[in-house]
Amino acid sequence: MQTKTIKLYPTLFELDFYLSDNREDLIQPFIERYGMNQSYWEQELSPNASYIIDCDLGTRLVITMTKMDIPVLVHEVSHTLDKLSKLTGLELGKESSEWKAYFMEYVVRELIN
Predict the structure, then answer these.
(1) Is residue 83 a contact partner of residue 61, using CB atoms and an 8 Å limit?
(2) Stated pTM of the model
(3) Could you give the number of structural domains in the chain?
């Protein structure tokens, strides 16, 4: 399993990224980091998904993936951008298309390196 946390500029939020081909490997780290219990994460964890998780660390944005597949990563980062917009009020209209492109590029680059 590989993990990485990156800052989501220009906000104060961070993104936790988990890469594991075995969903069961994620359950214990999720319990330790985000709380809840095993049965909760057994039901909630999905491969190739993005989440907003409220926990003792604050609100966390999280992506899980089973393998490093760039099209799937871009897909999940897009969902994460939508979630970030809901949390912060950042507008994602046509006036922000360049900012969205830079954000997507930044996050994807950070996660594949």
Answers:
(1) yes
(2) 0.93
(3) 1
